[in-house]
Amino acid sequence: MSPKVGDYIFWVNGDTFPNFTHLYCDLVFVVKEKLYWLEANNISPTDPIVDSTEAYQEHYQWAKYQHQLKKRKRFTLKAVSDASFQPQNGAGKLIDLIPLLKEVGWSVEEVQHGLKAGWQSKPMRLDSRAESLYKRVSDVALVKLYGADLQSIKRQLALHVSL
């Protein structure tokens, strides 16, 4: 099942896979647009889909070398900018989704199973509870870093590293 406009995507990382006890939310992403590439395995840095040089370097340039597609079209998802964010607690730490998942009706075991593909992880398709999870994350996040905030932080870190 391919993502569609209006879907909620939660980018996560766990403490130990697949038997994680914490599942930290790196990013909450609400899909605004789904844009298909002209070529499945190559995109120009000047393509209108590409927002910036930094975006090209981080999200696009690798396509010609990794994850080559033979039959499917490649697409890029664009976020609803004022609804997509990195949620943090008051100490600037990522939010643990485990308690919130339980609140909206997912067991840890269900999520562990949903994210497992053999010995690797895989995306887990969310059901109607995704909107409730989004609302809970939004409610508990004392800090919300939006796209422009995250870009600024990355640029500052890059500048610091280059000094």
Helix content: 25-40%
- By secondary-structure content and strand pairing, the structural class works out as alpha+beta
- How many domains in all? 1
Proportion of β residues? 15-25%
Task: Identify low-pLDDT runs.
Answer: none
Our count of helices gives 5
Strand order of the largest sheet: 1-2-3
Order of helices and strands: EEHEEHHEEHEH
Spatial extent as radius of gyration: 17 Å
Q: Please summarize the sheet with the most strands.
A: 3 strands, antiparallel
Distance between the termini: 45 Å
Number of strands: 7
Mean pLDDT: 88
Overall body shape: globular
What is the compact description of this entry?
With 163 residues, this protein is α+β, with helices and mostly antiparallel strands. The protein is 29% helix and 22% strand.
Defining key terms:
single chain; 163 residues; alpha+beta; three-stranded antiparallel beta sheet; two-stranded antiparallel sheet; 5 helices; globular
